[in-house]
């Protein structure tokens, strides 16, 4: 674009670029400060078993309680945290905090933690996970790690080795945002995932859109055939819930059940369910 605008645009382009870079380094410094100041918090979104209606797990979702900007969503800081490496200490904090919280929940409720591809590149990840479980006292089978398809593209041999080591610690492995990446279906067979999470982009147009319906139905059937649990993400309406429940998916996650909640509110949600039952 700058080229098409001809001579002189270079000079105009520069300050804009410099500004962007300044904003970026300000955010980076702010992120670093926030880690030290303990400004991050976890919210928990329940996953509900469609057969029983019971909460079987909660996904930990990080938020930044910014002193001026209020609650900042992960989309606004995870990418930079990944580029700068700050995702390593942040990710370690998320893992430890999620495990610590889950220790105080009923035994049958698991906690799911998102892993960045950057964390996955660290060979010590399986030991870090095992060590965190030991330190927090959480049973391994109560932790589920969510990994996106993007992680699987780099190096298949290494991916298989890492996933195998992680599974050996006893944790569950969920393939997150399934259907949005490029991974082939054979990956699902090759890699030791215990769960598929169907991306919410396939749910948005349910139940009326025939193509979305076909895709969701096919993924659930495939998961069942491979002996994997399926969670459907982003279920916002009663109609969507009814559709995926009729298709016998395993669990549902979405605003129709609950938005992500701060820790105490999540416990309140569990209490309310129990009172209603
Ligand atoms: P994700 O792992 O796919 O998490 C689900 C996202 O969908 C969450 O957004 C959740 O609030 C949102 N969601 C849940 N139900 C619904 C619904 O019914 N409708 C709609 N429209 N959205 C729904 P959130 O919390 O903003 O997180 C966005 C992404 O940020 C996550 O996607 C995950 O990739 C990343 N993320 C969040 N926490 C962490 C973390 O601790 N570490 C890493 N590496 N990534 C994280
Ligand atoms: Mg996730
Ligand atoms: Mg997801
Ligand atoms: Mg997603």
UniProtKB/TrEMBL annotation:
Keyword Transmembrane: yes
CC per GO annotation: membrane
All copies of domain EAL, residue ranges: 24-274
Keywords: Membrane, Transmembrane, Transmembrane helix
Record has Acetylation as a keyword: no
Domain of life: Bacteria
Record protein name field: Diguanylate cyclase
UniProt source species: Methylobacterium aquaticum
Residues of the full protein shown: 515 to 791 of 791
């Amino acid at each position: 674009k700058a080229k098409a605008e001809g001579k002189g645009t270079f000079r105009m382009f520069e300050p804009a670029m410099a500004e962007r870079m300044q904003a970026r380094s300000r955010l980076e410094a702010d992120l670093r400060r926030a880690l030290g100041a303990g400004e991050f918090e976890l919210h928990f979104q329940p996953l509900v078993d469609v057969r029983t209606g019971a909460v079987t797990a909660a996904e930990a979702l990080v938020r930044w309680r910014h002193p001026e900007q209020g609650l900042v969503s992960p989309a606004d800081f995870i990418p930079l945290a990944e580029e700068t490496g700050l995702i390593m200490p942040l990710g370690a904090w998320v893992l430890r905090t999620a495990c610590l919280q889950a220790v105080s929940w009923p035994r049958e409720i698991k906690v799911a933690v998102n892993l960045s591809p950057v964390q996955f590149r660290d060979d010590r990840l399986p030991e870090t996970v095992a060590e965190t479980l030991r330190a927090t006292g959480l049973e391994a089978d109560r932790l589920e790690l969510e990994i996106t398809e993007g992680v699987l593209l780099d190096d298949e041999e290494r991916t298989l080795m890492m996933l195998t080591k992680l599974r050996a610690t006893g944790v569950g492995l969920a393939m997150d945002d399934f259907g949005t990446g490029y991974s082939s279906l054979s990956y699902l067979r090759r890699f030791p995932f215990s769960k598929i999470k169907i991306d919410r982009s396939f749910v948005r147009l349910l139940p009326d859109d025939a193509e979305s319906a076909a895709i969701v139905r096919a993924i659930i059937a495939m998961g069942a055939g491979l002996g994997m649990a399926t969670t459907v993400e982003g279920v916002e309406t009663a109609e969507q819930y009814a559709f995926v429940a009729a298709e016998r998916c395993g669990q549902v996650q979405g605003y129709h059940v609950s938005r992500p909640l701060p820790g105490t509110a999540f416990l309140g949600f569990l209490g309310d369910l129990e009172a209603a039952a």
